[in-house]
Amino acid sequence: MTKAIYPGSFDPVTKGHLDIIKRSSKIMDQVTVAVLENPRKIATYDIEERVQMLKIVTEPYPNVEVDYYEGLLIDYAHKNKTNIIIKGLRAMSDFEFEFQMALVNQKLNPSIETLFMMTNNKYSYLSSSIVKEIAGLRGDISSLVPPEVHDIIISKYRS
Ligand code: PNS
C-alpha cells in the first residue's frame, strides 16, 4: 500500500493545497494531511481550527485523513509508518528552501523520500499569506479558498 504524508502549516488551507491533496489522493492509496508548526512562521489559526478546516474540505476523499503533530516531520513519518512526503512546488522561489528541507530530512532519516508535485497553473500565485493579507484588508478571497471554509477563514478578521 502506498501511503504518503502531505505536511504543511495550512494557515489556512487554500485552493492550491486542496488541488495537491486531490491529485495525490489519486496516485496514493492513503494520504495523511499533517498540520505541523513551521518554526519560521507565527500561525494565525490555531491547530484545532486548521485541522477542522482541512477535515471539512477533505471530506469527499475517503483515502485522505487529517492529523497534526508537534515535532519533526521525520518523527511524524516514522510514527505514521511511511517514508513518502509530498510537497507542492509553486515557483522557483519555493525550490531552494524545499530542496534544503528535503535534503535535511533525508540526512536525518535516509529512508525518507520527498516527492514534489508541481502546482496547478491556476494556483501558482496563491499562498496562505496572500489569502490572509487580502482577508485582513477586507478583500474578496472567495476565488482563493475552498467555499466550505470561506466563512471560517474570514471570521478571524470580522470580529
Ligand atoms: O506550509 P509550510 O509552512 O511551508 O510547511 C512547512 C512545514 C510545516 C512542513 C515545515 O516547517 C516542517 O516540516 N515543520 C516541522 C519541523 C521540521 O521537521 N522541520 C524540518 C527541519 S528541516
Short description:
The protein is of the alpha/beta class and 159 residues long. The chain has helices at 15-27, 47-58, 73-79, 92-108, 128-136, 150-158; strands at residues 3-8, 30-36, 64-69, 84-89, 113-118. It has a single domain (3-158), classed as Rossmann fold.
What's the structural blueprint in terms of helices and strands?
Layout: E1 3-8, H1 15-27, E2 30-36, H2 47-58, E3 64-69, H3 73-79, E4 84-89, H4 92-108, E5 113-118, H5 128-136, H6 150-158
Parallel strand pairs: 1-2, 1-4, 2-3, 4-5
4'-phosphopantetheine binds next to strand 1 and helix 4.
Question: What does this 3D model show about the protein?
Answer:
This protein is an alpha/beta fold and 159 residues long. The protein has a single domain, classed as 3-Layer(aba) Sandwich (Rossmann fold). The protein is built from six helices and five strands; from the N terminus they run βαβαβαβαβαα. The chain has helices at residues 15-27, 47-58, 73-79, 92-108, 128-136, 150-158; strands at 3-8, 30-36, 64-69, 84-89, 113-118. α1 links the parallel β1 (3-8) and β2. The longest helix is centred in the middle third of the chain and has 17 residues, at 92-108. It is globular. The mean pLDDT is 96. Bound molecules: 4'-phosphopantetheine. 4'-phosphopantetheine binds at residues 7-9, 36, 38, 41, 72-73, 101, 104.
